[in-house]
Amino acid sequence: MSQITIINTALSKLGANTITSLNDGSIESQQVNLVWDNVRKSLLRLHPWNFAIKTAILPRLSQHDHPLYTYAFLLPADCIRVLRIEGNPIYKLEGRSIYTDVPVITLRYVFDNIDTASWDEAFADVLAERIAYELAYTFTKSNSYREALFATFSQKFQAAKFIDSTEDTADSFGQEPSTFLSARY
Fold first, then answer.
1. What is the pLDDT of residues 86-102, one digit of tens each?
2. Which residues are CB-neighbours of 163 under 8 A, at least 6 positions away?
3. N-term to C-term CA, the chain
4. CB within 8 Å of 18: residues ≥ 6 apart
5. Mean pLDDT of the chain
6. Residue 62 · residue 84 · CB < 8 Å
7. What is the pLDDT of residue 65?
8. Residue 60 C-beta-side C-alpha neighbours within 13 Å
9. How far apart are CA 84 and CA 58, in angstroms?
10. For residue 9, what are the contacts with CB-CB under 8 A and spacing of at least 6?
11. Is the pTM of this model over 0.70?
12. Any residues with CB less than 8 A from the CB of 35 and at least 6 apart, and which?
């Protein structure tokens, strides 16, 4: 689904005119430009969507000044949410840096995926619903309609998260067997 299709789906929910491009000079395109990136990134951060996950071995920084950790690593430029570090070492995330006492880290993270063709259809639908919610008062002047859109967004978001979460096997938490589970069972 293209960016324009997602946007036009949102605008149609509001009874607004559709657009042909983000730069067509219309009020609709101007308003969408105000919210598109923030809403998209926010929705990507809210759940580890399968289409927006990457794994990378991070390059170590040669110098750092953190007093509690031996090593520092810079987050990838496209990282918008850290999911985990393989092996589950103790680490501290400060700004765009990860500090730890482990010399090599493999990071699993949510990246800023802007390729709408790679997005899950349910995510695109949820994004359209969220954009409609964000722009509802601007185009309809109705708080009750805006609230109804939020309720619809919430339902679609929960369903999309469930589908996305059940499409692969669960991630393991670390490489070592759990001492709690070993003692218990």
1. 999 999 999 999 999 99
2. 120, 122
3. 47
4. 8, 11, 12, 28
5. 93
6. no
7. 87
8. 11
9. 13
10. 125, 128, 132
11. yes
12. 131, 134, 135
